[in-house]
Design a protein that fits this description.
Number of helices: 10
CATH superfamily: MetI-like
Order of helices and strands: HHHHHHHHHH
Number of domains: 1
CATH topology: MetI-like fold
Shape: globular
Length: 277
């Protein structure tokens, strides 16, 4: 038997790295903000025996929750959420495809892009709400008008970000690929695509909320289904708890989708270094 015996080093649970600890702290802080917001809401709507505003103006969390439960049990909540999200995401998807394609095409065709940029900027500055009645007149109260309104709302955001991203590609990186014998396809694959991806995902996170807002606005103007349509009906009979319940549904769905897009971006662009200021 050898005189020198190996020492067994006890193995413990691996310690969480700084990033994991930071994520846990961020989650705890977010939950604290939500809890405090609900507490303030409850306190100012009769929770402490003090209610400066009537329920028709500001319902309590309990009243909102009961209205949401009744809405869900009626079966209309699932129907309206499905209708609104389908319209919003169809418009968002079409806007993403068209915006990216036009942004890349116009960035490569510099003269065409420079000629059409003022017109596109003018169309982008047009209030989307002003277009909704026109789309209702042209395409009716069905799905098409809401999809087109969501499309019109997001396509310019995606286009502008993609166009600016391609135009801002680092020229040194392009020359480096060309020096190594790369052609236009290599430049697009190894320089332009990674460079523009961050711009596109930034536009996507913004466009999700815009697509939802545009769809609900279209349902305000004219519809027979959807969350916006139910909000109009509830407002007409001063059912404020139902309005707040629908707002909470929109906030929850919007946050979940944006968070999903953020996580997808973090996974696909995991090679990108993070800058901590």
């Amino acid at each position: 038997m050898s005189a020198v015996q190996s020492k067994r080093i006890p193995l413990g649970r691996p310690r969480a790295g700084p990033r994991a600890a930071g994520a846990e702290a961020s989650l705890a802080l977010r939950l604290l903000v939500v809890v405090l917001s609900l507490a303030v809401w409850e306190a100012t709507t009769g929770g402490l025996g003090w209610r400066p505003l009537p329920p028709a103006l500001l319902p309590s969390p309990g009243e909102t929750w009961h209205s949401l439960v009744a809405y869900a049990r009626s079966g209309l909540l699932a129907l309206d959420v499905t209708r609104t999200l389908t319209q919003a995401f169809l418009g968002l998807g079409l806007g993403m495809v068209a915006g990216i394609a036009l942004g890349v095409a116009f960035a490569y065709a510099r003269r065409v892009g420079d000629a059409l940029e003022p017109l596109l900027a003018a169309l982008n500055s047009l209030p989307r709400v002003a277009v909704a009645p026109l789309l209702i007149i042209w395409f009716g109260l069905g799905v098409t008008s809401k999809v087109l309104l969501a499309f019109f709302t997001v396509v310019f955001v995606i286009f502008m970000n993609t166009y600016a991203g391609v135009r801002s590609v680092d020229a040194d990186l392009v020359r480096a690929v060309q020096v190594l014998g790369g052609d236009g396809r290599h430049v697009a694959r190894w320089v332009v695509l990674p460079w523009v991806a961050s711009w596109v995902f930034a536009a996507l996170r913004t466009s999700i909320s815009l697509a939802l807002a545009a769809t609900v606005t279209g349902e305000f103007v004219g519809s027979t289904h959807g969350l916006g349509y139910r909000m109009v009906l509830a407002t007409g009979v001063l059912d404020t708890p139902r309005v707040f319940a629908i707002l909470l549904v929109l906030m929850t769905v919007g946050y979940a989708v944006v968070e999903g897009a953020r996580r997808l971006e973090a996974y696909l662009l995991r090679w990108r270094s993070e800058v901590v200021l």
